[in-house]
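A reminder from the course coordinator: this example appears on the midterm review sheet, so study it carefully.

Given structure:
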């Protein structure tokens, strides 16, 4: 496969097809209002993305409960007060011809009290002085994910992406290092995966037949075990519980360093699974049209663009116009990002990402 194949449509199990193979990855820009309402800067960013040629655009991680917040000025979807702003985002994306998904997020033990977060660990040993959440609290959080998906649907989004990566609550529960529970949400792999599965199945039941469900999974850190994640994914594929898996790799070429799959790429451990009608995409240093096309050859159905889309909003259109397009090299100056239409708040966020903004640039 080559670059033109990136522009072929892709059907999903539910709802409309993706018009091409480019998905905008979730990007927390920390530019919402303090109560999680989408700001004018969020709207502007989404409007820019909507005109950029992506097939599906995920929002930044949106809090399913006020207490699940991790970042200052994080987008929210935990209250009906968020609906008007979310509806405007969904409309902008639809008008640009892309599909839309809200990324549903709860920070679990990593919630930040400074921003109203309530640390909610799976285990009493993770955060000093904080008890493990009770079974009833786990079920309440599960229901908050489902209620948030319904809110996304009523705001006009085509679907949601369930955030199961980076040690946030769903990934935390999957981890044998962070989850030592003795109730039905801990112990065996089946029990540790129960929260994820109940969230996904609950959303499927609560939302309409065209509603699309993605699941974002990361593999590295937080005590996650590759063999176990592969097993859960195989089951999710086999039961066709989701429309797409979004593998959140930091480098899509990352090789497994130890264990059963040593020497293989992390990606291949998942692309080799029978996925029935579920689609699979990956993120991680996709900075050129050539690299994106290579990933189709490595078994991906689509690719997720993150930093390359901040550097140049319309990455898909650039690749379409020029198959050998490559992203500008990082670090870039703040002025470069400003010229590209990034808000001052978003630029401030990007200053926190080492090697993205040239230190000291105005
Ligand atoms: C500024 C910034 C914000 C991010 N916010 C989120 C987020 O809200 N949710 C998420 O799952 N991943 C988030 N990520 C991770 C990206 O979606 C992506 O997986 C990662 O950056 C690797 O892709 P890349 O190499 O193309 O940047 C963020 C990354 C960046 C750079």
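Designed residues:
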């Amino acid at each position: 496969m080559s670059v033109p194949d990136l522009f072929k449509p892709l059907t999903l199990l539910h709802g409309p097809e993706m018009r091409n193979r480019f998905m905008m990855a979730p990007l927390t820009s920390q530019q919402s209002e303090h109560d999680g309402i989408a700001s004018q800067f969020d709207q502007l960013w989404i409007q820019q993305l909507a005109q950029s040629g992506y097939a599906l655009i995920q929002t930044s991680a949106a809090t399913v409960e006020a207490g699940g917040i991790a970042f200052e000025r994080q987008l929210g979807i935990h209250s009906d007060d968020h609906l008007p702003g979310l509806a405007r985002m969904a409309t902008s994306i639809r008008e640009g011809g892309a599909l839309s998904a809200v990324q549903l997020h709860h920070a679990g033990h990593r919630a930040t009290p400074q921003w109203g977060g309530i640390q909610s660990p799976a285990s009493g040993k993770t955060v000093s002085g904080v008890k493990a959440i009770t079974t009833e609290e786990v079920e309440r959080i599960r229901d908050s994910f489902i209620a948030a998906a319904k809110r996304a649907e009523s705001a006009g989004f085509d679907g949601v992406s369930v955030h199961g990566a980076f040690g946030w609550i769903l990934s935390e529960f999957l981890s044998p290092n962070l989850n030592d529970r003795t109730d039905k949400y801990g112990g065996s792999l089946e029990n540790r995966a129960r929260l994820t599965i109940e969230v996904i199945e609950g959303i499927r039941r609560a939302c309409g037949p065209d509603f699309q469900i993605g699941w974002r999974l990361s593999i590295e850190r937080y005590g996650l075990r590759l063999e176990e994640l592969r097993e859960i994914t195989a089951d999710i594929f086999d039961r066709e519980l989701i429309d797409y898996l979004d593998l959140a790799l930091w480098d899509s070429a990352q090789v497994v360093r130890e264990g059963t799959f040593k020497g293989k790429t992390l990606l291949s451990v998942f692309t080799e699974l029978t996925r029935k009608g579920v689609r699979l995409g990956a993120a991680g240093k996709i900075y050129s049209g050539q690299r994106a096309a290579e990933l189709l050859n490595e078994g991906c159905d689509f690719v997720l663009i993150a930093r390359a889309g901040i550097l140049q909003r319309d990455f898909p259109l650039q690749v379409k116009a020029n198959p050998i397009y490559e992203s500008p090299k990082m670090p870039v100056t703040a002025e470069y990002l400003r010229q590209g239409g990034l808000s001052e708040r978003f630029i401030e966020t990007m200053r926190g990402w080492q090697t993205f903004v040239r230190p000291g640039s105005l």
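Residues 25-28, 60-61, 103, 163, 165, 216, 248, 250, 283-286, 305-308, 349, 353 surround flavin mononucleotide (CB under 6 Å). The longest strand covers residues 56-63.
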